[in-house]
Amino acid sequence: MTLFGTTLEGAQIAQLVGLLAVLALWIFALRNARGYERWFKGWSNDNKRASRERDEPPSRNPTGPWG
């Protein structure tokens, strides 16, 4: 096989295939990690929002002679 004017042997072709396979593996791993990061940020924001709502006193209309 010839690539860019250079004849490639069987071992070199196998190395190129292996290199491309590792590159594809890294791309899928990065995509998975970014998806987890996106999920975690959303989960964290939901928890923060829930704790803020829980910690804030409920808003009530003033009633009675002092309110």
Describe, in short, the structure shown.
By secondary structure, this protein is mainly alpha-helical.
Q: Could you tell me how far the N terminus lies from the C terminus, measured between alpha carbons in angstroms?
A: 89 Å
What form results from the Cα inertia axes? Answer: rod-shaped
Could you tell me the number of beta strands? Answer: 2
What string gives the helices and strands in order? EEH
Poorly predicted runs of 5 or more residues: none
Figure out the total of helices: 1
Structural class: mainly alpha
User: Describe the biggest sheet?
Assistant: 2 strands, antiparallel
Output the strand order for the largest sheet.
Answer: 1-2
Integer-rounded radius of gyration: 29 Å
The pLDDT mean sits at: 85
Q: What proportion of the residues is helical, as a percent range?
A: 55-70%
Strand composition percent? 5-15%
Task: Give structural notes.
The chain has 67 residues and is mainly α. It has a domain at 19-54. It is built from one helix and two strands; from the N terminus they run E-E-H. It has one helix at 10-55, and strands at residues 2-3, 6-7. It has a two-stranded antiparallel ribbon with strand order 1-2. The protein is rod-shaped and about 95 Å long. The termini are far apart. The model has no long low-confidence stretch (mean pLDDT 85).
Labels describing this entry:
two-stranded antiparallel ribbon; rod-shaped; 67 residues; 69% helix; 1 helix; mainly alpha
